[in-house]
Amino acid sequence: MSVGKYHIVNPNEGFPLPDSHKVIVRVTSPNGGSYHYSDHVSEGHFAFQAVESGDYMACFFASDHQPSSTMTIDFDWKSGIAAKDWVNVAKKGSIEAMQEELKKMFGTVQSINKDMYYLREREQEMQQLNISTNSKFFWLGIFSIIFALSVAGVQLWHLKTFFEKKKLI
Fold it and tell me: CA–CA separation, 42 vs 59, rounded Å?
């Protein structure tokens, strides 16, 4: 969102602005699209929502003056959060479009929130499965060690009885 205000500074304070102090104002996008145009004005404002990325330009043209004169323009351009002239934005911008965009964003945020809760539930399920699997493998390891020691004990007993029968021991 961009908002701008401009006015020609009066060179003679206390007197009205001369009729010759009028300008043509044009605000354009980086691709040449016109966002604001005013012809022969001494002050004004504009507001628009940027749809293209890049540098936007504000051009001030003064008509040919006879005799030539110097004009000072007070120009204030704000964009993003700094554009807090919401009354003029509401007049010039499209509030309905912004409302629709906010509704879309709100729906997206709700969808992301639901997905995050679903992922948290899945994470808890996976942690429980991991704990259960670790417990089962622990007991399988204990059983394997006991079984291997039992087989080794039976083999030693068998060899001992074999050698006793052969009278080698």
Answer: 14
Give the pLDDT means over successive 10-residue stretches in the chain (169 positions). Answer: 85 78 88 88 86 87 74 85 58 69 91 96 97 97 98 97 87
In our burial notation (b when 16+ CB lie closer than 10 A, e otherwise), range 120-131 reads eeeeeeeeeeee
Please tell me whether the peptide bond between 67 and the residue prior to it is cis, using omega within 30 degrees of 0: yes
Q: What are residue 166's phi and psi, to 5 degrees?
A: -80, -5
Are 26 and 41 spatial neighbours (Cβ–Cβ below 8 Å)?
no
